[in-house]
Amino acid sequence: MLSDNSDEERVVAERAPTVRWSGSGLDILDQTALPHAEEVLHCETVGDVVEAIRRLSVRGAPAIGVAGAYGVALAATLHDPATDREAFDAAVASLRDARPTAVNLRRMVERVASKAGDGVTAVLAEAHAIRDEELGASISMGERGADLLLELVGLRPLKVMTICNTGGLAAVDRGTALAVIQTLHERSLLVEALPLETRPLLQGARLTTWELARMGAPHRLVVDSAAAFLLSRGAADAIVVGADRIAANGDTANKIGTFALALAARQAGVPFVVVAPESTVDIDTPSGDVIVIEDRGSDEVCSFAGVRVCPPGTQAINPAFDVTPVAFIDALVTERRVVHFRSGDTLESVTAGQNV
């Protein structure tokens, strides 16, 4: 087993307990237990990591990318690629396919697995590098996103609406869209955050409010179905959301309810901004039409906290994500750039060197 007990590792662990390499496995803060309890899952097998990803103990595109990266490192410690390649490859495949929509998981798993020929130490080093990149990206996205909102709305304290959970729980530390809100709060430019509850699993109600409370940011929880009406009455100055996959044309897959929020934002004349790391941009996916949308089945909808709320036999349609067409997105903020879709920028033109 590999161990990494450096001072740097201890500092990162204290700052970002969402996903942490323990030296012989992976420790994951169980988000299904929040906000009532802070429980850590000790994943000692690749199967443990896969199950944690599937049951949403760890969730959010960047965070599951990091979890998948460390899952490959765990696979390498259990099945040395030099002597047990078949078992290693099977473990990698199970990690890569644990959830289909977010591109980060597949991309980070494959990136770390590509180091298998260099030895187990190189595999773990690549996983650490991915974690560190996500930490740095969160800081940059928060700063760029806050600057953009103030540019779009004006230099004044803002009311900002968001959906799902896009903080440190979803991205190891600070986050994506929630990092923008945190940065505004730290600059004393946040009137209040307005997180949607995010049914059916209530990531906004359970997780985002927990993170906002921990940072001391003013906030009020919003019923999902109230968002459009509240926007029409001027309740928010801007909307920031995360992303699980961004297609080459800018179409964006994110938590179910995001598309409805974008439609309401356009009607209300409120800026709608996607905040996500570069690793979420998938140039190989031409448009949102071909993004696979995970359906999580009926139980999450027909039961609440283990109590059945529907008549027996009721079936539900339960897509975990939706796709917002690029026409309804004002801008994309990553750790490296701002793409102004409303002004005609494209991901390809920016990649070619414009507006970087």
Q: Report the biggest beta sheet as strand number plus sense, adding barrel if it closes.
A: 6 strands, mixed
Question: What is the typical, i.e. mean, pLDDT?
Answer: 90
The N- to C-terminal Cα distance equals 42 Å
SSE class: alpha/beta
CATH architecture of the largest domain: 3-Layer(aba) Sandwich
Order of neighbouring strands in the sheet with most strands: 5-4-6-9-14-15
Please tally the β strands and state the result: 15
Please bin the fraction of helical residues: 40-55%
Identify the notable features of this structure and list them briefly.
Rossmann fold, alpha/beta, disordered C terminus, disordered N terminus, Four Helix Bundle (Hemerythrin (Met), subunit A), 4-stranded mixed beta sheet, 41% helix, 356 residues, 15 strands
Helix and strand layout, with pairings?
Elements: H1 7-15, E1 19-21, E2 26-29, E3 40-43, H2 46-54, H3 61-78, H4 85-96, H5 103-113, H6 120-153, E4 158-162, H7 168-171, H8 177-186, E5 190-195, H9 203-215, H10 227-232, E6 238-241, E7 245-247, E8 252-255, H11 258-268, E9 272-275, E10 281-282, H12 299-302, E11 303-304, E12 307-308, E13 321-324, E14 331-333, E15 338-340, H13 347-351
Parallel strand pairs: 4-5, 4-6, 6-9, 7-10, 9-14
Antiparallel strand pairs: 1-2, 2-3, 7-8, 8-13, 11-12, 14-15
Helix pairs in contact: 2-3, 3-4, 3-5, 3-6, 4-5, 5-6, 6-8
Short description:
The chain has helices at residues 7-15, 46-54, 61-78, 85-96, 103-113, 120-153, 168-171, 177-186, 203-215, 227-232, 258-268, 299-302, 347-351, and strands at 19-21, 26-29, 40-43, 158-162, 190-195, 238-241, 245-247, 252-255, 272-275, 281-282, 303-304, 307-308, 321-324, 331-333, 338-340.
